[in-house]
Amino acid sequence: MGEECNFKGKVCVTGASGYLASWLVKRLLLSGYHVRGTVRDPGNHAKLKHLWQLEGAKERLELVKAELMEEGSFDDAVMGCDGVFHMATPVIGVVGLTSDPKAEMVEPAIKGTRNVLSSCKKNPSLRRVVLTSSSALRTRLDFDSKVPLDESSWSSEELCEKLKIWYGLSKLLAEKAAWEFAKETGMDLITVLPAFVIGPSLPHDLSFTASDVLGLLRGETEKFKGYGRMAYVHIDDVALCHIRVYEEPNAHGRYLCSSVVLDNNDLVSMLAKRYPSLPIPERFEQFVRPYYDLDTSKLRSLGFKFKGIEEMFDDCVASLREQGRLDSY
Ligand SMILES: NC(=O)c1ccc[n+]([C@@H]2O[C@H](COP(=O)([O-])OP(=O)(O)OC[C@H]3O[C@@H](n4cnc5c(N)ncnc54)[C@H](OP(=O)(O)O)[C@@H]3O)[C@@H](O)[C@H]2O)c1
Fold it and tell me: Nearest residue CA, atom 24 of ligand 1?
């Protein structure tokens, strides 16, 4: 009972084994979708075990191979799907440096997005594409810090280059490429702009952002120094938001997905009080970043409610404890 009548159609999730995509797959399966996830190595059982353990996976999950840099690689994956959630992109540290960031992050993000969308275009049953971008809209010099940034704001390409914010640049250019493609082809595209994602992690290995958070909870503040003031959102809200905008017939354009924007020191002083056994400093030195806030009224107007910062970290800490990653504290 339930399986047949709840069936919501077939959707594809790119980069399905990632931190955020795994949670989206979980939520999609729970909602009754048949999910075809793309991964780079379907034979890597250790890396994919958490997906096969999800409720509904045995009946309604398929995992197929696809690589962002290969033209046509996503043709089979998206064929016959009603919707595509494009999440795959190299996330090699949000402020980290790589030896060749353009080749490692920027090119795969842009070329990969074009490849995925070209494959989508070949699928006659496709209804809508939801692309995961980023809430990093403030890498620009010309915004008024008294006015919260909304979906009309775009970071400056030149400033991202100058400040070597390669991940931000990769997200900016990939989203722009997607909107150009949608304009040229008439594709129904929606983009979700999540803040820094906090919550439980399903994959065995922690993603870059999840390991930065683990570092902070262990008292390592180096990575967060560079973040300054940051926007945060619960991983479950990001997954639910993707599904909400996919299902909502009137949804359109970009959707900021952020619960709260906090200064680092406000965050750590809350965390230090809430988890006294963890070695989180009450304050730490950090780069000064301009004040900014985000206006999320567009998503809220769809009736969407965000979980708060306490719930994000309670769920994150509980999951890290369960995985034995905070055993020393
Ligand atoms: N985490 C955040 O705080 C946050 C915030 C805003 C937006 N986002 C966006 O959310 C999405 C997921 O991020 P995440 O944090 O979940 O990162 P993640 O765990 O590193 O997931 C990225 C996924 O992309 C796949 N991928 C990377 N390069 C690929 C390639 N060349 N071909 C095919 N697949 C490739 C990875 O596959 P492998 O497992 O094979 O490497 C992985 O499954 C990204 O678009 C990211 O920009 C994340």
Answer: 88
Please give the number of the atom of ligand 1 that sits closest to the Cα of 197.
Answer: 3
Whether the Cβ atoms of residue 139 and residue 159 lie closer than 8 Å to each other: yes
The per-residue pLDDT for range 47-69, each reduced to its tens digit, is: 999 999 999 999 999 999 999 99
User: How far, in Å, is the centroid of ligand 1 from the Cα of 22?
Assistant: 10
Three-state SS at 12: strand
In short, whether 194's Cβ falls inside 6 Å of ligand 1 is yes
- The alpha carbon dihedral of 118, 123, 128, 132 has a sign of negative
Which of 299, 239, 229, 222 is CA-nearest to residue 264?
229
Distance between CA atoms of residues 8 and 115, nearest Å: 26
Which residue has a Cα nearest atom 37 of ligand 1? 15
Q: Could you tell me if the CB of 196 is within 6 A of ligand 1?
A: yes
> How far, in Å, is the centroid of ligand 1 from the Cα of 21?
8
Task: Copy the structure tokens of residue 223.
Answer: 């990575």
The residue type found at 258 is S
Sort 268 into a burial class: Cβ within 10 Å, 0-12 / 13-18 / 19+.
buried
Angstrom CA distances, 22 to 240, 324, 328, stand at 13, 20, 28
* The pair of three-digit structure tokens given for residue 278, joined into one six-digit string: 């963890």
Closest CA to ligand 1's atom 27? 90
Q: Does pTM surpass 0.85?
A: yes
Binding site membership of 67 for ligand 1 (Cβ less than 6 Å) = yes
Q: Alpha-carbon distance 42 to 64, whole Å?
A: 6
Distance between Cα 147 and ligand 1 center (Å): 31
**pLDDT tens-place string over residues 153-203:** 999 999 999 988 899 999 999 999 999 999 999 999 999 999 999 999 999
Q: Is the CB of 286 under 6 A from ligand 1?
A: no
Give the Cα separation of 257 and 128 in Å (integer).
19
Query: What top-level class would CATH report for the domain 10-197+234-258+293-306?
Result: alpha beta
